[in-house]
Amino acid sequence: MQFPSKKPKAVTDLKAELYSQPLQFYGQPPLENISLSEFESFAVDRLKLLKTVENLGVSYVKLSDDYKKKLDNEIKTQNFPHGAGEQTEKRRKDHISHFILRLAYCQTEDLRRWFIQQEVDLFKYRFKELECGEKLKFLHKNNLQYNTISAEEKDNLREKLATSSYTASGVKVEEQDFYKVPFQDALDLVRTRKVYLEEGYVYIPHNEIVTIVLNDFRTRLSKALALTARSLPAVHSDERLQPLLTHLSHSYLGQDYSVQKNVGKISLEQIDSLAGKSFPLCMRQLHQTLRDQHHLRHGGRMQYGLFLKGIGLSLEQALQFWRMEFIRGKVDADKFDKAYAYSIRHMFGKEGKRADYTPYSCMKVILSNPPSQGDYHGCPFRHSDPELLKQKLQSYKVSPSGVSQILELVKGMHYQLACQKYFELTHNVEDTAFSLSHPNQYFTESQKVLGGGKDVKRETDTLQRPQENSAARGLTREPAGDESQHLAEITKNLETDFQDA
Amino acid sequence: MPSSAYDPACLPDLLPLYYRRLFPFAQYYRWLNYGGVQKNYFQNREFSFTLKDDIYVRYQSFSSQSELEKEMQKMNPYKIDIGAVYSHRPNQHNTVKSGSFQALEKELVFDIDMTDYDDVRSCCSAADICSKCWTLMTIAIRILDRALRRDFGFHHLLWVYSGRRGVHCWVCDEAARKLSAAARSAVAEYLSLIKGGEETVKKVMLTDPIHPFIRESLEVVKHYFPQYALQDQNILGRKESEEKVLALVPEDVKKELQEIFQEERNPERRWRHIEVQAKKKQQTAKKRQYFEKEIMLQYCYPRLDVNVSKGVNHLLKSPFSVHPKTGRISVPIDLTDVDKFDPFAVPTISLICEELDRPKADEDEAKSEDTKGKENEQDSTEKRKIRDYKRTSLAKYVKYFDQFLAGMADSWKGKLLKQSDLQKEF
């Protein structure tokens, strides 16, 4: 990274050249001097933008109208280039801020993955917004030339090309150019089977060319980050930048719930009752399965085990908890100690590379490692059949109107919002003040509402005013039909609480 | 001797014999050395051993075939796993700066395990298999082998029986070994049709138009479906399995079929009714309906453990490793006759060790050869080992492996020639 400029004379030319295009591949690092305050404000603004990209990607279908509108707004608010016209300053900001975040986000695999994903999404949006002529100019300028196939080859493959893509129908195959590239250059199209694939080559219709460009962008960025990571020690020796960069990279996920403030605040006996009251659906489901089957497969153990660690189970408790449950099933104590205890100690950073693993965020649960045969992990709002989800919600006493509201959100792929709605309904609060992004956040917020936040151990014998109030408020907005049932529920809860007190 | 003769308690006695006299080290080394085209390819490869009492040793590596032989004969691993080719020697991974020790290449691998089919097979569950459900593995091999060759253009595929309840595929082409993690996961996802865990009933959703890859796969499934699903598994013959099938069709069709099934008991004819309904629905419904195809795929389509394929550094059980529970050798599968492959006919370690002790007709000849060839002892022990495995039922599987290696050798010969040409130029 060479921020200090060596050739001031060339800078102005370079700047005009660099910022003549609305979009760039970030091939050249900036070579000018900038002030520390500009350094920081550029970086923070881009980070905000990337966070928005991330959030929108979870709540909306990418590149849907809503998504585009919201993203466009954010780009304007944060003063990044949009649309055509003279925007040298904004383009400069785009350029420099990208390179600053590279420094902050090159250090670990997790950071790199996050950064690349958001940058790629942002790039995709901006590329799609370009006019046709600008797109070609962009391709030309960056030497992105792809081989088109001959009319004859197209004719031979017509049937297959037509059935390989959502967009190209039989008629359109003739009108479109098809590019033939190695499948490694269009992974996103391969993954989703949106192209025809033969002998290691994909045939890409012209309107999907963005995928190859993105693939190229992603590969370059990934390589560049690996290189940046190597030269990082030099940057870190600069005591002005080092704390700033560390701060920047820490703020990407919000809280990661790895801080062990509350270790030992939970006793194993409490878990069952907490699972019913304060666990998000995904964890409740895992807990239930574990209790029923005395076993969870690896994906489930990771998701649930780290969550439990996050809410305050100590290593000793965790070992005891898993062992107790597993030896009730097919696993004997000896096998448990050999085959499973290691991975639990591993979770707590006591084995292997001794990384202290953090609980999974909603993003991670929703997007990575989807459940397959025999698995119960994942996000119930994302990975359950709507019909099963409905039954489950009903069995957890969610009102019919609540169920349909949740299912509506699920249908629109707003899984986190659906979960938040579930929170509101089960905690009788209207309009939660937080935006849900982490199962452990769900737990903390729930404990707050239930009044157990300060001291979990006493959560059963305290009756909190706010809960009562919110319960009353909850009642008024329930539709008339199930009011009586709901009222009965609450009275029952109050009664038990009083008895405990 | 039938495989039932295998007793896990004998493993400590049998393994030394197996590694000393039977394990095909020469071929094994020839495979992983890949013709020596790339420097240190074998030396930087990770092996990991599972020893007695489940002691697990990672990051083993060996500088040569003879070191590999010596170590294996010394440690007598219960199980051998193969990992990636790293930037440095794995056994020295602690001495290099953390971060610079990185997995660079590995074969593209696939792991298909019968336990993942538990919701669609009625004959066995979990680790058990029988000749009925083994058809699922045959289907998996046929579908994936075709796609990896024709769609992805790979040539050097080694299919291996895992020793218990599944099969592995090692795609050994240079291009495959160099794939990034992202590319591996894209390939694995291209090949995955079954989506969802225990909370998903309908696990296959086809969209219009049906991709050529899925069409090809369906052809394979169609070939096996009547015998396998309708006859052997009898999926439409019993009440509870019939309900499972009907849960996969649209609500209105389900009612109609339930009525028909009251009268019709024959599974083939029942299936024909499902097909008829599907056709009917296809003509009337606005959105294309493919539920009969989706049922076939849900019951028969290969279920990949994608996590195994995704990571460059993921370990996978090595060919010719012993399965400690069954005693069976993890052997290559002959693709020209994949329908005939019988997992229960795969030799166990006790069987082949026993076969070694049986006197053979050409034994005397061998002896005289041995005595005269004293001058080159190394050579003669090598020869003896070759003759040893040839006397056992392991022989035919080593032959498949040889055939696979011969195919590979042609490719790297070309590579080496090119390299030496280049050197001359400079």
Automatic annotation (TrEMBL), chain A:
Biased composition (Basic and acidic residues): 475-486
Keyword 4Fe-4S attributed: yes
Keywords tagged on the record: 4Fe-4S, DNA replication, DNA-binding, Iron, Iron-sulfur, Metal-binding, Primosome
The organism's taxonomic lineage, starting at the top: Eukaryota, Metazoa, Chordata, Craniata, Vertebrata
Species, as recorded: Xiphophorus maculatus (Southern platyfish)
Residues the record lists as binding [4Fe-4S] cluster: 282, 362, 379, 419
CDD domains (UniProt xref): PriL_PriS_Eukaryotic (cd07322)
Binding partners and assembly: Heterodimer of a catalytic subunit PRIM1 and a regulatory subunit PRIM2, also known as the DNA primase complex. Interacts via (C-terminus) with PRIM1. Component of the alpha DNA polymerase complex (also known as the alpha DNA polymerase-primase complex) consisting of four subunits: the catalytic subunit POLA1, the regulatory subunit POLA2, and the primase complex subunits PRIM1 and PRIM2 respectively. Within the complex, POLA1 directly interacts with PRIM2.
Entry's family note: Belongs to the eukaryotic-type primase large subunit family.
Domain DNA primase large subunit C-terminal: 273-443
Region (Disordered): 448-486
Known role: Regulatory subunit of the DNA primase complex and component of the DNA polymerase alpha complex (also known as the alpha DNA polymerase-primase complex) which play an essential role in the initiation of DNA synthesis. The primase subunit of the polymerase alpha complex initiates DNA synthesis by oligomerising short RNA primers on both leading and lagging strands.
Organism superkingdom: Eukaryota
Cofactor field: [4Fe-4S] cluster
Protein name: DNA primase large subunit
Cellular component GO terms, alphabetical: alpha DNA polymerase:primase complex
GO molecular function: 4 iron, 4 sulfur cluster binding; DNA binding; metal ion binding
Cofactor binding remark: Binds 1 [4Fe-4S] cluster.
GO BP: DNA replication initiation; DNA replication, synthesis of primer
PANTHER family assigned: DNA PRIMASE LARGE SUBUNIT
TrEMBL record, chain B:
Any GO MF annotation of the entry: metal ion binding
Pfam families reported for this sequence: DNA_primase_S
Region (Disordered): 360-385
InterPro entries: DNA_primase_S (IPR002755), DNA_primase_ssu_euk/arc (IPR014052)
Cofactor(s) it depends on: Mn(2+); Mg(2+)
Key words of the record: DNA replication, DNA-directed RNA polymerase, Metal-binding, Nucleotidyltransferase, Primosome, Transcription, Transferase, Zinc
Residue runs in coiled coils: none
Catalytic activity: ssDNA + n NTP = ssDNA/pppN(pN)n-1 hybrid + (n-1) diphosphate
One GO CC term, this protein: alpha DNA polymerase:primase complex
Similarity comment text for this entry: Belongs to the eukaryotic-type primase small subunit family.
Alphabetized NCBIfam families for the sequence: primase_sml
PANTHER family: DNA PRIMASE SMALL SUBUNIT (PTHR10536)
Protein name: DNA primase
Organism: Xiphophorus maculatus
